[in-house]
Amino acid sequence: GGEASGKGTDICFEYNQHVGQDFWIAATGNFTYARSKFTVYEEPVYNEKYRSRIGHPIFQDYGLIAERLFVDDVEAANSPKQNFGPYGGGDIKYTDVNGDGQITGADMVPIGNPRLPEVVYGFGFSSGYKSFDFSAFFQGLSNESFWIDSRATSPFNNETQLLKAYADSHWSEDSRDIHALWPRLSPTINDNNNQRSTWFMRDGAFLRLKQVEIGYKIPNSIQKRLHTSSFRLYVNATNLFNISKFNLWDVEMGGDGLGYPIQRVFNVGLNISLK
Fold first, then answer.
1. Are 140 and 122 in contact (CB under 8 A)?
2. Which among 14, 120, 203, 261 is least surrounded, fewest beta carbons within 10 Å?
3. What is the C-alpha separation between 137 and 215, in angstroms, rounded?
4. Which strand ranges, in their side-by-side order, compose the sheet holding 206-217?
5. pTM, two decimal places
6. Which of 207, 206, 210 is CA-nearest to residue 137?
């Protein structure tokens, strides 16, 4: 059990303006900021104060600090013992935070931003000139961390496939890249490398162009001959692009890039109302 407190801000705005008879513009936006923290939490009395959840966000994750990969088996054998199963050269090397000569759960510290975003926002605008109109809407979030699901995306785990990103950047006896994206390849799950840590932690912030549309309304003189009260042609697109530091797959898919991807959709159509 425990107690928590929170604070936040919610802002919305709208704007409309006509310029003469031919041009108009409208804009809208929203911004939400919310932060929480535990004020009371039922937990042991830790010698390591950093292990306490009091004062930290409700969705704060705790994990190990990953320094790099072991360059070889000799370095692994002469480093603080890591108590998460067999490991060696090419596996993740963790920091002994409390200095007791071994890596255990006591070395887990608050890492990254909360799993739920603290900032969510969106904004858009539309405008028109004579018979043409244009609109766009963006959405985004920040102050969020997520973790690559190293079990679900692990090479050869119930699959015969290997993600190209892992194939292009992994530790091997030939390269011994201690900062590779993926540790040494293994036909089975490596528990040492699958601990919650900063190694697979990523920034979940993004800004996405959610929808954009261009339209054209047929002039009234033509509509009279067609016996219509409204005749509009349009082209629109959804999920056209997004801006994010994460580029292995769509950031909104979270940690598992092997799932069904978010679709980019294009439409061409018309709206007709008959008299």
1. yes
2. 14
3. 15
4. 2-19, 23-41, 119-129, 132-142, 206-217, 228-243, 265-274
5. 0.88
6. 210
